[in-house]
Design goal:
Layout lengths: L5 H28 L1 E5 L3 H15 L3 E5 L7 H9 L8 E4 L3 H8 L3 E2 L4 H4 L13 E13 L7 H8 L10 E4 L4 H14 L1 H13 L3 E3 L2 H10 L4 E5 H9 L4 E5 L9 E9 L5 H11 L2 H8 L18 H10 L9 H15 L2
Parallel strand pairs: 1-2, 1-3, 6-7, 6-8
Antiparallel strand pairs: 3-10, 4-10, 5-8, 5-9, 5-10
Amino acid sequence: MTPRDGSWFATVATLLCLGMIALLSWGGRAQQDALVVYCSHDSTYSEEILRDFERESGIRLIVRFDTEATKSIGLINLLIAERDNPQCDVFWNNEVLGTIKLQKLGMLQPYKGKGYERIPARFKAGDGSWTGFAARLRVFIVNTENMVATRQEIYRRLNANGENALARVAMAKPMFGTTLTQYTASWGDFGGEAVKRRHRRQRDRGLLEVNGNSVVKDLVASGRCDFGWTDTDDFFLAVDEDKPVDMVPVLLRCERAICIPNSVSIIRGTRRLGAAQRLVNFLLSREVETRLACSPSRQIPLGPIDPESLPGEVRQLRLWSERSVDLKPLVDAHADCLSWLQSEYLR
């Protein structure tokens, strides 16, 4: 058979077709074998950790991240929409109340692995359907060139009267992320009506509402705003940029902080349970918590860790986190608070 022979061309074409079919079949199997992870934690910190798991375990990951403006809520809604045909295997959420909502809907697969055991009870589900790790605190970020960073001065300004009294105070829109968690914690502590009154009064006095905690950080760090609500990870970004900022923890009754852990859970119905359990164990390990604590975000380890392995700032945060409010009983308050906020912002 020579190149001029018609059968030669037919043979080559057949081999090429078979090769393409094999390649497509392999690609389809690789796609099916991959572990699908939905992640609302900042990709800046989470993606490298996930890729390290991928390299160490040999388990391929397909990762879907959330956006800053709709942090966590967007993926929660997507998971609920996919409930009858789950596409996700493991959910790494950057907060916990949305995860508890999924637990209540029966969408999570309980798992108590070795990582589960090292996390304190108030930061995990009793049935193992989710486990918290690597937390943040809600704090006021204060521009120290504009004002004194004390709780007394902050609340003096928050209680000031006048149409534009809060025009230099910033907050992320509370329908999403950790600002929603803060509102929910206040709802559970002070009651819904008190939260509604305070919210409306602050808006009436010119509170600046923006799309995300990072925007709050930028406004305060630049001096455009005097202070605002954010999380410790965003605060430390401003510190590392040598901005004139300090922080004051947001406290509820009995001096309780609002400590918001990341959470990891397995979606019920996964066909890759063993791989999903390996990823959960990896994320709940001492090594990952230490890594997140030593990262620019200074996440707060929840499991036992040698304090000497932590930055000094994180040791202080751990003391505040030990006096934190328990978020687990607030799932109904979360639903009520979100429903009210949607009526305020989406009408």
